[in-house]
Amino acid sequence: MPVALVESLDREGRGVARADGKAVFIGGALPGERVEYAVDKRKPSYDAGTLTRLVRGSAARVAPRCPYFGTCGGCAIQHLDPNAQVAVKQRVLEDALWHIGKVQAESLLAPIHGPAWGYRHRARLSARYVAKKGGALVGFRERRSTYVAEMRSCEVLPPHVSALIMPLRALIGALSIRERIPQVEVAVGEEVVVLVLRILEPLTAADEDAVRSFADEHRVQLWLQPAGPASARPFHPLDAPPLYYSLPEFDVRVRFGPADFTQVNCAVNGMLVRRAMQLLGPAPGERVLDLFCGLGNFALPLARLGAAVTGIEGSAALVERARENALTNRLPVEFAVGDLFDAATCAALPSCDAMLVDPPREGAIEVVKALHGDGPARIVYVACDPATLARDAGVLVHVKGYRLAAAGVANMFPHTAHVESMALFVRA
Prior knowledge:
The protein is an alpha/beta fold. The chain folds into 3 domains: 3-61, CATH 2.40.50.140; 87-115 and 265-427, Vaccinia Virus protein VP39 (Rossmann fold); 122-188 and 192-236, CATH 2.40.50.1070. Helix content is 24%, strand content 29%. The chain contains 10 helices and 22 strands. It has helices at residues 82-99, 159-162, 165-174, 205-218, 266-280, 299-304, 316-328, 343-347, 365-370, 386-398, and strands spanning 3-5, 8-9, 15-19, 22-27, 34-42, 46-56, 107-108, 122-130, 135-139, 183-188, 193-198, 221-225, 233-236, 244-247, 252-255, 287-291, 308-313, 334-337, 354-357, 378-383, 402-410, 420-427. It has an 8-stranded mixed β-sheet with strand order 7-21-22-20-19-16-17-18, sandwiched between helices. A 6-stranded mixed β-sheet has the order 1-5-6-4-3-2, with no helix packed on it. β2 and β3 (15-19) form a beta hairpin. The termini are far apart.
């Protein structure tokens, strides 16, 4: 068996080494370890393999807490100490900024930490009826597979949600359409847990009674989704409290629907919002653009600080929800629908003193390219992909005349290789 020294982790949480002039991706290996591995796949530019023996282990290696780790694909690096996970993610961010954008941050922000377990308030669980395994399975997919992991609990879900996995398996297994329920969407609010059953056929009257009994017994609200996400509707009970999360530091409450995008980690999101406000430092009356604003997660706190905020988002449904949140919180925020991946839309954006950008994985390249000499003095960029952040940072610094004043990571998804980050750009 070949032996290699692991240098880093890739975006799937695999160890990265080099052998015979090629990159080698080794499942289960950690940075700094010397490992023996078996090659599972050979390609012209890389090999992929699996750890077979630790020659020299990392001091940061720990025993995974979850008994399903290694089979379930929900987590990739439970075998790495949570503090070391953050250090690895900071290194991923720095490497991306330098190798892709050819930029370095003038200062590194202290990493944002939150709870390592029970943090996941949003999840999409797969469901499948498998007679050979005794009934319905509910959980995350197996690693690099379409099969549903056979799990009885989940350490990254809140304990009261994890405790629903086995009852959900029993419920689905007892329904007449048990083979026609492919997923269960989980949304946890401060007063209610919502479970959305994706149903490919209508429930029978007996099925409906079973679903009502489940909701009453476990004190959750069940929704049914017969088609796309927009078709989801509450089923029982109809008088449940609304889904919302609070940002108490800014006296803001954000309502959301179970299919709306929200951050999965409420504790880290609160810290992320606080840091964004500190970095952007809006003065009362300053004009601030919040791009890819979603439900108003950043726009509402910005308005609470006295900024004149305009939020722009591509989803009309999210804009409508954001407007409702502004009204409920009595904040004068203007929200508008706009395609921020369209060059013409970005070229027509109103001028502002400061800007907050929170794009999806594709980044905000059209927004960045549309900036001119009279662009905002400060830009806070919240990123869920360090590669696209680095690409956009390169344009901001080398073309648009900004300095990368600060950057750092937030451990939004502990035990996964996902890197959430934030950067501050200041006009030079």
